[in-house]
Inverse folding.
């Protein structure tokens, strides 16, 4: 059976379309998205890298929706180009901060918090 990566937590699971045993999240609604992170299409080394990235995003961003879109953005843009995705505009600035912190862990949590406040203010206007 195919090994797949959970989009929510970065754990391995059996089958692209199964729920994750670790976090209980169901598979993506998109077949393409569900099979993108499987050992059918990627090497174990690549899957390990993506698992690590997803887990790090989850630590940096506790909001599951923002974390999901940050991971999708990471996979959909260079150098990965693994998926095609339309990222909701309201998350773009926050995602850029999260991804910058992935590359540079010293990049401050204060800036992430400030960006979240800015986005929340814009969403409530």
């Amino acid at each position: 059976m195919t090994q797949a990566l959970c989009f929510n937590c970065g754990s391995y699971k059996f089958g692209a379309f199964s729920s994750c045993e670790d976090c209980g999240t169901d598979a993506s609604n998109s077949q393409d998205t569900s099979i993108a992170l499987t050992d059918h299409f990627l090497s174990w080394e690549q899957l390990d890298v993506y698992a690590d990235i997803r887990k790090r995003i989850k630590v940096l961003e506790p909001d599951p929706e923002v974390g999901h879109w940050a991971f999708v953005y990471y996979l959909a843009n260079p150098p990965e180009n693994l998926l095609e995705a339309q990222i909701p505009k309201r998350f773009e600035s926050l995602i850029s901060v999260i991804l910058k912190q992935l590359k540079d862990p010293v990049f401050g949590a204060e800036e992430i918090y400030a960006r979240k406040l800015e986005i929340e203010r814009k969403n409530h206007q």
Q: What stands out?
A: Residues 3-123 form one domain.
